[in-house]
Amino acid sequence: MVRRRGLTLIEMLTATLAVSVIMAGLLQAFVSMWQAQTFATRMPQVQQDARQMALTLAGALRRATLCTSADSASGCTIDAAVENTSGSGVTVYKRVSGTLTKLTYAISGANFQLTSGGTTNTLYSDAAVGLTYYSSNSYRATNFTAYVPDSTTTKNLVSVGIQTSVTRNGITGTYFTLVRLRNSPKKLSASE
Would residue 124 be called left, alpha or beta, if left means φ above 0 and alpha means ψ between -120 and 50 degrees? Predict the structure, then answer.
């Protein structure tokens, strides 16, 4: 029998299988690079949102105003800069044009919201907040104790640990900061 030049069916199937394996490997490499690029593009914005959310809350806590006896008609806690606290929200006092107002920052569902004067605005969606409160009986204290404040102990609030997270398109960014309240606890003397 005379052998002719060409490929047999077995050789053709073997070549097709080898090319298919190589193409599948290349496709997987391109998909992995695309996913890495997508993550690298989206992550900085998600991380920035988590950071900005924490700094917004930290700024409100840092600038919180003490309730004085002159403000007692507004139903505030005298000598405190914070009224209500929870693991995911806080109400702070702010003085606007001489009037003490309450600003409530809290999670509702998956939304981080600010309520002021009966108006609620969503600041961030797909968000979470965790708050840890620290107390001291002295304004210049350097050691703080974690505690759960109530209406009688909010005046001892010195610092708040803020842990925020924001999720966008399956990517979660987190941020933590510890903020010291500027006006709490109340200074008992000018030397403090």
Answer: beta
Q: Look up residue 59 and give its two tokens.
A: 């700024």
The pLDDT tens digits of the residues spanning 64-123 come to 888 888 877 777 878 888 888 888 999 998 888 888 889 999 999 999 999 998 899 999
Give the pTM.
0.72
Residue 187 belongs to a domain? no
Backbone phi, psi, residue 92, to 5°: -115, 155
Instruction: Let me know if residue 192 belongs to a domain.
Output: no
Contact 99, 76 (CB under 8 A): no
- Worst-scoring range by mean pLDDT, 137-141, 156-160, 178-182? 137-141
Q: How far apart are CA 13 and CA 22, in angstroms?
A: 14
Q: Are 116 and 71 in contact (CB under 8 A)?
A: no
Q: Which tokens belong to 95?
A: 């003085």
Straight-line distance from the first to the last Cα atom of the chain, in angstroms, rounded to the nearest whole number: 110
Domain assignment of residue 32, yes or no: no
Total number of residues shown for the chain:
192
Alpha carbons 68 and 70: distance in angstroms, whole number: 5
Asked if the peptide bond before residue 185 counts as cis, ω within 30 degrees of 0, the response is yes
Which helix (DSSP H) or strand (DSSP E) does residue 127 occupy?
A: strand 127-135
Q: Domain range for residue 73?
A: 44-180
